[in-house]
Each structure stands twice: as C-alpha cells, then as structure tokens.
Amino acid sequence: MKDLFGKAILDFQTNNSPEDLITETNISEADEMSVDYLFRSFNEMPKLEKKALQLCKGKVLDVGCGAGSHSLYLQEKGFEVTAIDISENAIKACQLRGLKNARVQNILEVSTDTSESELAKQKFDTILLLMNGTGIFGTLAETSKYLQKIKSLLNPNGQILIDSSDIIYMFDEDTDGSYLVPADGYYGELTFTISYKNETEESFPWLYLDYNTFQNAAKSNGLECELILEGEHFDYLAKLF
Predict the structure, then answer these.
(1) CB 173 within 8 A of CB 179
(2) Buried b or exposed e, range 170-184, using 16+ CB within 10 angstroms
(3) How far apart are CA 54 and CA 134, in angstroms?
(4) How far apart are CA 164 and CA 53, in angstroms?
(5) Which of 17, 24, 72, 128 has the fewest beta carbons under 10 Å from its own?
(6) Whole-structure pTM value
(7) What pLDDT does residue 89 have?
C-alpha cells in the first residue's frame, strides 16, 4: 500500500501542500474529496456521527479513526479512547493533533490474550466504526469474521456503534420498480480506487450494507441490532449489542 489516504491526512496536518483526494468506484465516476472534511469539528459533523458520539459510554475503541476527529472529541469530553487505523500516516497525524492513544492496528489483529500487549488485554464498552463503518468488512462474505472479532472485544453490556448506507439508489430502476443490480454478488460490494498527487492506490473492496441485510448478519453472529437513526441519503446509524 502507498497509504495515499493517510498521506493526504498527514500533508493537511503538517501544511505540506495538501490536495484533494480523488475517489472512484466500479459503479461511479471519479469524485474529488477535500481532505479538510476529515478534520471537521463536532458541529460540522453529520447528525449520524453526532448521535454516535453522544451515545458513547465507558472505554471506547475508534476503529478506522482516519484523522482522529471523532476520537479527539471524545478525548476532550473525558473519555478513555483508543484510536486505531491501518494507515501509519493517519496515525502520525492523530498523534500530532494530540490524541493520547492512537496506534497503527488492524482490528482483526487485536487480541484479548493477556500474555500479549497492553492493547491486547483490553476490552471496550463502546466500539465505534464511522464514515461507512461496514466498509472495512470488504465483502458480505467477510462480514461474519469481522463481527465475531469486534464482538470478542466488547465488555459485558458493551455496544458497537456503526454506520452504513443502502446504495440501491445508485442503480437504475426498472419499469416494475425493481432495481437493475448485478446478478453476481451483493450490490453493496464495491471496489474503491484512491488517487492523490498523481499517484493511484491499488484498488480495494469496500462494503455498503442495507439495514435489513446488516441486521440479519448481526443476528446470525449472536448480536442484537437496533436502528438508531436514519440520515438524509439512505444512510443509517445502528447499535449492535
């Protein structure tokens, strides 16, 4: 990985001539994304993110923390928060922004084995996955593996707060009201490509889940799923417990 997403974040944090990120999927045209959006304050966040942060309790794990804006808000509110991301550059930026506990970590590699590292010994009261938190699952087939892992990191009475979107609206509608989705696989399985400063990252899978499919996946993995809030554009916030 070239870590272009993280490079853009670090460039912005260090005033190193940041440029817009270019994102493209297998079903959409290239689109520009301003990096400063990742550095938004609480007041600038969409209502789903605000609600998720307001529902946080106890010890918090922020998965895929990016520039760390959610974790910083929680830290300022007095929460004990651990922020993890697979991007070294993003974590550097988080540390420069003042996050006390930010580290490079893949969620699948976090262990609760007490013989391992300090993070490995921890369990959490809230696990946060925002900005299409289901994206890291990659595909529908991989979802159970991730849910089982995240579930194993919860304290008793803990919660997972996660958002996603039903992207059915991106497909053409037939005259009978049905949607013309691919015959093979689940329509929310996309392939993302990121470009930054004339470099292009290797494409990667990214999963959007409609709520009913997500609810079924949660239940099949021994988790209750509650719809907390719906956004303005087919997006939603869910709580798993």
Answers:
(1) yes
(2) beeeeeeeeeebeee
(3) 20
(4) 16
(5) 17
(6) 0.94
(7) 98
